[in-house]
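[step 3/7] fold_predict: job queued, chain A
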Amino acid sequence: MTYPNTCEAVFLDRPNRFVAHVRLDGKAETVHVKNTGRCRELLLPGAQVILSKSDNPARRTAYDLIGVYKDGERLFNIDSQAPNRVVGEWLQTQEFTLIRPEYTFGDSRIDFYMERGGERWLLEVKGCTLERDGVGYFPDAPTERGVKHLRELTKAAGQGWHCAVAFVIQTEGVTEVQSNMETHPAFGEALAEAATAGVRVLHLPCRVSPDSLAVLETGVILG
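[step 4/7] structure written:
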């Protein structure tokens, strides 16, 4: 996926989950943050950030904050909508005959339903933006919704479905995602139970640039 009209700015502060203040071309600008997570280790005063300008003149904010450089070096895409978009593109390489987003199973909406041959697949997508010492961690904030999704996948696997959860790693140089037990042990426990039940856990490294994000793995690995 690619972003139009990107530019660089300097992060100032984040008064709430939805907006931030940045310095753009020497002036203060209020921008929309495309991630409601904490991102506390990323969105620090003085950090270099990436903005994408909207083509909607009626918007209250002209820019979306989509990326940030950690320690001035490693670029993170923090757009929470991007993981589903890049996985949707990646699934096109997986030889499925049907790919349907937002599939209702039980009491949840699972990100993707797929078919291939006589197989039925359910795939839940999680974006990872938390990195420590070269390892990704999820979640960066408690997510009861995430626990619920994992339990639905565990149930589906017990009913004969092919199930997977994909962690989209939104920075380069990281290939592994671990459960953030310190932040939300219930998620880690649910992930372990899902894996034991046969839910496949995928770690999807990405190619990240200021104006694009793409899954690196393009071969058929869902088998």
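[step 5/7] annotate
The radius of gyration is 18 Å.
The longest strand covers residues 119-128.
exit 0
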